[in-house]
Amino acid sequence: MPRMSEADKQRSHRRILDAAARLFRENGSEATSVAEVMNAAGMTHGGFYRHFGSKEELVAAAFRHAVDGVVAGIEEEETPEGRAGERDAYIAKYLSEAHLKDLGKGCPLAALGAELARAGQAPLHEGAEASIRMAEVLRHSADPDNTQGLAIMALMMGTITLARLAENPEDAHRTLEAGKTGAALLQENWK
Q1: How many CB atoms are closer than 10 A to CB 126?
Q2: Can you give the residue ranges of every domain in the chain?
Q3: Which of 64, 98, 178, 187 is the most exposed place for a label (fewest CB within 10 A)?
């Protein structure tokens, strides 16, 4: 069998990360097997170890990949006005019905935060780094300890978690609306 080119290996690696990031957010990393990830990536289970040394390594890498996908647009914006617009759009999207329903593409911290705290050193480290990174993109002004970004992030994660726990659409909607009100009040307080 011919050897895989480096470009092919990178494409395969990305397919694995895409599949793992989606499945872990939908089902949790503990409830998702390596075989399920590889199947979703269109690959055999045997190819896993060409890319990762362990499931823990995959969890950490897939989580980082998911966070990259979520915050890259905000981080890449160079102007303060553009960054503020990206941030505001992100908050609106986060506190939306679409985000509520789409676990597989939603916030990796909201979906996996509690699991990462128990998953081993590498996933825990990625969760801690993502918390800092996401809080940084959410802050409004020069804030030495980033209280603003952390407050907005805590409110958003709490809102989406509570809305997903609601037993009916009306309660979920009311929770999202309360989160939007809270986010607006926090943002207004820091202008």
Answers
A1: 23
A2: 6-189
A3: 98
2 DSSP 8-state letter: P
Give 122's contacts (C-beta < 8 A, 6+ positions apart). 56, 57, 59, 60
* Amino acid of residue 110: A
Q: Where are the beta strands (DSSP E) in the chain?
A: none
Per-residue confidence (pLDDT) for residue 141, from 0 to 100: 65
Please check whether residue 77 is in contact with residue 86, taking contact to mean a CB–CB distance below 8 angstroms: yes
What homologous superfamily does CATH list for 6-189?
Answer: Tetracycline Repressor, domain 2 (1.10.357.10)
Rounded to an integer, what distance in angstroms lies between the CA atom of residue 37 and that of residue 104? 13
**In the predicted structure, residue 179 carries a pLDDT above the cut 80:** yes
| Cβ atoms of 155 and 182 closer than 8 Å | yes
Task: Read off the pTM.
Answer: 0.85
